[in-house]
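for the recovery benchmark. tokens below, seq after
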């Protein structure tokens, strides 16, 4: 994942605010750097509680949320940030997981998460999911 910034495929995320909730510092940094290289404005948090105050003030265009966080599940985080979002509009969420996608598919569906990316995160896979997620939200 350290090579995410070197990916050939680039999205135009200019001006998009993306929230990355990930407790693994190197993963959060690699994803954030790649998103920034695509023009995104990135905010990070490393816990369920971390992003709550931020989303009350400003509404991210989308969130990438790890499903295993130190103070609760990523699903708790998804539910809380959607409830707290300043704009009141639904925020698209992409789940990040080290588990196989099929193992989290049911939980993702229960929490309204349509997209799951498995670690280690491949830039092209993330780009494809981001495209689909942003198109669905438009």
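predicted aa per position
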């Amino acid at each position: 994942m350290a090579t995410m910034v070197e990916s050939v495929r680039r999205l135009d995320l200019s001006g998009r605010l993306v929230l990355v909730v990930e407790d693994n510092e190197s993963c959060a940094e690699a994803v954030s750097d790649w998103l920034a290289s695509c023009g995104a404005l990135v905010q990070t948090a490393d816990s369920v509680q971390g992003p709550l105050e931020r989303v009350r003030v400003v509404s991210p265009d989308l969130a990438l949320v790890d499903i295993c966080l130190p103070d609760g599940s990523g699903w708790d985080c998804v539910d809380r940030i959607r409830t707290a979002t300043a704009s009141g509009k639904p925020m698209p969420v992409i789940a990040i997981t080290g588990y196989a996608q099929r193992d989290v598919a049911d939980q993702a569906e229960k929490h309204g998460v349509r997209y799951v990316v498995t670690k280690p995160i491949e830039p092209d896979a993330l780009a494809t999911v981001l495209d689909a997620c942003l198109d669905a939200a438009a």
